[in-house]
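lol forgot to send this yesterday, sorry. struct tokens for the thing we talked abt
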């Protein structure tokens, strides 16, 4: 039995997941169907949105840090490798919010995008 707090909506239901049979997870405590779906995904394949900064070189040659995030959640076990690649990436300015800094990272269909505009 595992306990989780649902983060899908503001209610924050306390969920209990019976994971004794991995093929048939039983979720209780959810007040909506989204809570049950969240619990099943969190047990089987946890994912997180990753935020970080990457280096950028401006026109004046000054090094800046550009905030970035994943466009879709990243599998939890791949976050360390993703952060390693983000931190070694250096982009050239200008860049706009939403521009891809890393496209289709490691063939995962996961894009890393800028979250701020720099000229």
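and heres what i got for the seq, position by position
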């Amino acid at each position: 039995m595992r306990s989780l707090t649902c983060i899908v909506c503001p209610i924050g239901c306390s969920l209990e997941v019976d994971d004794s049979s991995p093929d048939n997870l039983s979720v209780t405590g959810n007040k909506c169907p989204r809570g049950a779906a969240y619990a099943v995904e969190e047990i089987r394949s946890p994912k997180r949105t990753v935020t970080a900064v990457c280096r950028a070189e401006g026109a004046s040659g000054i090094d800046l840090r550009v905030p970035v995030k994943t466009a879709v959640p990243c599998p939890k076990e791949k976050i360390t490798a993703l952060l390693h690649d983000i931190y070694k990436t250096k982009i050239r300015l200008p860049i706009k919010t939403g521009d891809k800094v890393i496209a289709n990272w490691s063939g995962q269909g996961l894009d890393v995008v800028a979250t701020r505009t720099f000229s």
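Strands lie at 2-5, 14-18, 26-28, 47-48, 51-57, 63-70, 74-75, 90-92, 100-102, 112-114. anyway ping me if u want another try
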